[in-house]
Specification:
Elements lengths: L3 E3 L7 E3 L6 H13 L3 E7 L3 H12 L3 E8 L2 E7 L13 E2 L4 H11 L5 E5 L10 H10 L2 E3 L8 E4 L7 E3 L5 H11 L4 E6 L7 H5 L7 E5 L2 E6 L7 E3 L4 H13 L4 E8 L6 H9 L2 E10 L2 E9 L8 E2 L11 H8 L5 E5 L11 H11 L4 E3 L3 E5 L8 E3 L4 H13 L4 E4 L11 H9 L5
Helix pairs in contact: 1-2, 3-5, 4-5, 7-9, 8-9
The structure holds shikimate-3-phosphate.
Shikimate-3-phosphate (S3P) binds next to helix 1 and helix 5.
Amino acid sequence: MMELVVAPACSALSGTVRVPSDKSMSHRAVLFAGMANGTSLVRDVLDSADVRSTISALHWLGAGVRVLGGGPRGLVLEITGWGDRGPTQPQGPVDCGNSGTTARLLMGVLAGWPVRVTLTGDSSLSRRPMRRVADPLRSMGARVDMAGDGTLPVTVHGARLSPVAYASPVASAQVKTAILLAGLRADGTTTVTEPAPSRDHTERMLPAFGVSVSRESPLRAAVAGPVALTAAEVTVPADPSSAAFLAVAATLLENSSLVLPDVAVNPTRTGFLGVLERMGAEIVVRPAEPMGTEPIATLEVRSARSLRATRVPAEEVPSLIDEVPILALAAARAQGMTRFEGVGELRVKESDRLEAVRSGLEAVGVPVRAGADWLEVTGTAALQGARLSSLGDHRLAMTWAIAGLLAAGRTVVDAFEAVDVSYPTFRDDVEALLGRRLA
Ligand code: S3P
């Protein structure tokens, strides 16, 4: 386990960084290519532990994956899908590592094929709820065996599927996508309705692979099966969730001026920009050429003169679900008390993020309270360095590293290597923008 020592920043963040490619879109692009008939070309795929989990799962399931190149923007992959042949029966379990997206999406992909596949994961993923996907897949006709508490290892016994009209109790793009992907193998129309709109990359990307998705409202998506995917060319833009860490750091460090090009600004992902704007952040969003159906922008961030607290209501949460830890850090430097509502889902992410954010902020001297599904953070002028842990959660590792730049004295982040899950070059990028080593 790697510990990161962080000294107070002393300097501003300035310069331009193209943050790594979007994790959600990278998973989908390689997965859809692996399912398709023909050979797809996928450019700028995030080269991180999570996406590697999806790539190696595809390999074990019989897709051909060739790495044509790799550069600062990500991997260039040529992927020959299993298409109409379907996935091959793997010899052993498929390891999904730390990646909830890999495990949940694969459950849906496998449910309609004559295979029996066991999915495993690391200790964090093995604690996360899988019943939310297993139940609707069972109602479509698949058999899904799980550990007693509804966790991994999960064994999917594929079957002939019937379509469903599923009203999901949770706004989750992983649940929605798993059911839609299973629906591609069912005879008829499969519909998913959500309580609030979750990220819609699946709905936007499937048409590039020749599958139409009907969307009567932002809360409902439907596919008509049976239908096969056909190979496509897809390029993945930069990840707004990764950009959020640097945007908050530049907002909070005096005299900063940061440019983040090529960032996906799909409205189902950019709730954090609205929150930061309400708090008084200075972020200009300059629209750029869209990539396929995904809107893109350059974000220009300058330090804020001062920040004020805000309320983040439950309706806003799905559009910023992965940004709550870093927004809570912004709130720790704002005037007044910021309240996040309807954030109970954070308890079942890569860690119990609600409790982890509460205890981490408390450790650096911030008045903070959390309930079953809310978080209240009261801003304070002075943070003090402390020993913090990522708990193996990438988004906590990055939040605590930035807290260390703001705090007086030395901060230590245990298990910092968790950043490899979504942003392996985080430290290099921050050091380049600061013009110095972190410690
Ligand atoms: C993701 C959906 C979200 C998000 C995760 C990625 C996806 O999870 O938190 O980081 O790619 O579909 P939920 O579907 O559990 O909300």
